[in-house]
Amino acid sequence: MELSLVIPAYNEEKGIGKCLTAAVEYGGSKFKEIVVVDNASTDNTAAIAASFPGVRVVRENCKGTNFARQRGVDETTGNLIAFLDADTLLRPGWIEKVEHAFARDPKLVCLTGPYWFYDLPHRHAFAFWLNWHFAHITHFFTSAMGVTGNMVLRRDALEKMGGFDTSFTFSGDDVDTALRASKFGRVKFTFDIILDSSGRRYKKLGYVKTTAFYIRNAVWVIFGKPKKDSSHIESVR
Question: The whole model's pTM is what?
Answer without folding.
Answer: 0.84
